[in-house]
Amino acid sequence: MIDEKKAQTLKVIKLSLKGLARQGVFPQSDMDEFQAALDSATEYFSSDGISPEEYQRLAMRTAADGVDWGNVGLGLAGESGEVADAIKKHLYQGHTLDLPHMKEELGDVLWYVALACKCGGFSMADVMRGNIEKLKLRFPDGFSAERSRGRDK
Ligand SMILES: [Mg+2]
């Protein structure tokens, strides 16, 4: 369910931006960007999602003091291993792929990603943006196996 405060905020943003657009504040050449921004704001405010900043803040509530890259590396490997083990058991041992369990384990991986960000002093949002930018440069037209094989690294 959409938070009432989010819904009101979105309504104010939409009305403000549409009013500015009607007054010709935005040049016609910016209208695509304007619409994309409006769509993005709509998607964000309409979701029940959690922002990267909010996740990082809430997750690190349970991080111990004095964590270091050793905690990060071993924790990431351990939780990733739990995901890999569930897939292995599904593919080769006839286990049902327990999706709620997978979801939980992916959350554990994410928690260690947040811990890595804490150790590195960067935000999860920056990591996410950086990854998307890298992928856009690497695969501007979407993934291509041929382009992937042609990469140096
Ligand atoms: Mg786990």
UniProtKB/TrEMBL annotation:
Keyword field contains Magnesium: no
GO MF annotation: an example: hydrolase activity
One of the Pfam families matching this protein, by short name: MazG
Keywords attached to this entry: Hydrolase
Residue span(s) of domain NTP pyrophosphohydrolase MazG-like: 75-143
Protein name as annotated: MazG nucleotide pyrophosphohydrolase domain-containing protein
Species name: Propionispora hippei DSM 15287
